[in-house]
Design goal:
Strand content: under 5%
Number of strands: 2
Largest sheet: 2 strands, antiparallel
Distance between the termini: 60 Å
Length: about 450
């Protein structure tokens, strides 16, 4: 018997022995406690506040630093994100305490934060979900502070995935505890999450409102984990150079540009430096867009990029991609019947289409370069997306028609030279005809 069949047999036996799932006609021992894990907006706010606190400390005197550090603590002694003491409260380790002490003396340094996060990730003890949430915040904080390196981006992606995995584990244990009084004799590891969801979707199962919320979040989280499958590998392969947001500030401000020109090397040297900074930034944004808690800093970076290369389409294309990634997650939540995400769908799509339109306006419609072809192709694709999802996005037909007509202009430019776009061109022409006929 192969390993997979053996695990399934053990899982079935565990369910029978512990009566884990079949709760029909039986009173549950206690209600399921719901701890939503996918509230990314609240997590983003915590990161932003912590980043602002660190920046304030960097600009204050020694005594003010000490006073601020004391004031950022709370009365319950839970620690703070600013000095990473919130991690020390949950992980009892001399090595961890030593790193936190170093971070406390220099909160703006990312090196020690990355070391701390990696050290805790290697600790195989069982920790609550809150620790993995705080680890993700610590990793993201390095990006918000402007230190964008292969190490900080990789650790941000790894802690995001680890947090998602632990949301699943936490919810799984919560469901099993509710459904079985004999869990001491059940090996939880042999019961798959998919089996757990399937059993709870059984018509005979007794499921309360909180359970439905938990099962829904498990489904969404499983999909989000799928989205991260190639993230770590792509980060290692594509992010080879470090950068700091100060570099963007330098090349985006008039004072910074003047400084570059007068520092030696002339105009060509300044132009080369600017191109390098832009190239590093674009590579970083491709990773940042895939990690939801980094989206706010990603949009700030894009805004800086638009100051530098405002006449080119690529910075606006990157903004559109960030909004589309956010829309992808919102759509997933709605499809999984988390209707609290629905109000944000249309505004997010509108932000994306505005950014795409700005990119299109900066693209040649007669002899597009390689990068501009990407803009044209993506705009054509988004126009069909608007048509196909117009009901879910609650878009007016006349608005969709305008988007499709712009998409037609884009696809008509690139289709003659590339047969791969002919099918898409046909679909757009057909969609326009249908809207005009029935709209």
């Amino acid at each position: 018997m192969d390993k997979e069949k053996l695990i399934k047999r053990e899982a079935a036996a565990a369910r029978r022995k512990g009566n884990v799932f079949n709760t029909s006609g039986k009173k549950k021992s206690k209600p399921l406690e719901v701890t939503p894990g996918l509230k990314f907006k609240s997590i983003e706010k915590e990161i932003i506040v912590a980043a602002e606190e660190v920046k304030k400390l960097g600009n204050s005197s020694f005594m003010l630093k000490m006073r601020n550090t004391i004031l950022t603590g709370n009365s319950e002694g839970e620690g703070t994100h600013v000095d990473a003491s919130i991690i020390g409260k949950e992980v009892d380790s001399k090595a961890v305490s030593a790193l936190i002490s170093k971070i406390s003396s220099d909160p703006a340094s990312s090196t020690e934060r990355v070391k701390l996060v990696r050290m805790v990730m290697r600790d195989k003890r069982e920790f609550p979900l809150s620790l993995f949430r705080n680890l993700m915040i610590q990793a993201a904080l390095t990006i918000y502070l402007g230190d964008i390196t292969p190490a900080t981006l990789q650790i941000a992606g790894q802690t995001y995935r680890l947090y998602l995995e632990n949301i699943i584990n936490s919810h799984k244990k919560g469901l099993l505890v509710v459904h079985s009084k004999q869990l001491k004799n059940v090996n939880l590891d042999v019961i798959s999450v998919k089996d757990l969801i399937k059993e709870n979707e059984d018509e005979d199962a007794v499921i309360d409102e909180n359970e439905e919320i938990v099962i829904q979040e498990i489904k969404i989280t499983l999909k989000l984990i799928e989205f991260t499958n190639s993230l770590d590998e792509e980060t290692r392969d594509n992010i080879t150079m470090s950068m700091n947001l100060h570099e963007l500030d330098e090349v985006s401000s008039k004072h910074g540009v003047k400084k570059i020109f007068t520092s030696g090397g002339g105009a060509q040297s300044a132009m080369n430096k600017q191109k390098l900074v832009v190239r590093k930034t674009l590579a970083a944004l491709e990773v940042i867009k895939r990690i939801p808690v980094l989206h706010p800093i990603g949009l700030k970076i894009v805004a800086k990029l638009q100051q530098i290369e405002g006449k080119l389409p690529l910075p606006y294309l990157m903004e559109a991609r960030l909004h589309m990634q956010a829309l992808r997650i919102l759509t997933l939540r709605v499809v999984m019947r988390d209707y609290s995400a629905r109000p944000a769908l249309t505004p997010t799509f509108n932000k994306a289409i505005v950014a795409y339109h700005k990119a299109l306006k900066r693209t040649s419609m007669t002899s597009p370069k390689r990068g501009e072809i990407t803009v044209l192709a993506e705009f054509a694709q988004i126009s069909m997306y608007a048509y196909e999802q117009r009901k879910m996005l609650r878009l007016a037909n006349h608005g969709v028609l305008k988007i499709l007509e712009m998409g037609k202009k884009a696809i008509d430019v690139i289709a003659p030279d590339n047969r791969n776009y002919l099918k898409q061109q046909k679909h757009i022409h057909s969609a326009i005809k249908n809207l005009k006929k029935f709209g």
